[in-house]
Amino acid sequence: LLLRWRRRRGLWRKVKEARQRQERSLVQMEMAVRRFREQHPSVNMISILSLPLPELSKKLRDGSLPPEHVFYAYVGKALQIATETNCITEYLQESETQVRKAKLTGKLGLLYGVPVSIKDSIDCQGHDSTLGFIKNLNKPAAEDSVVVQVLRRQGAIPFVKTNVPQSLISYDCKNLIFGQTFNPLLYTRSPGGSSGGEGALVGGGGSILGFGTDVGGSLRFPAAFCGICALKPTGNRLSKKGITSGVLGQKAVAAAVGPMAKDVESLALCMRALLCEDMFDLDSTVPPLPFNEEVYSSTQPLRIGYYETDFFTMPSPAMRRAVRETKQLLEDAGHTLVPFELTNVDYVIFNFCVRGMFADGAASFLKTFKGELEKSSMGLFFWLAKSPHWLKTVLSWIAKPFVPRFSSIIRSMRANTVDEVWSLHCEIEEFCHQFIAQWKKLNLDVMLCPMLGPALGIGYPGKLSVAVSYTMLYNALDFPTGVVPVTMVTDEDEEKLKGYQGYFRDWWDRTLAKAFRGSVGLPVAVQCVALPWQEELCLRFMKEVETL
Question: What is the architecture of the domain spanning 297-342+422-547?
Answer without folding.
Answer: Alpha-Beta Complex (3.90)
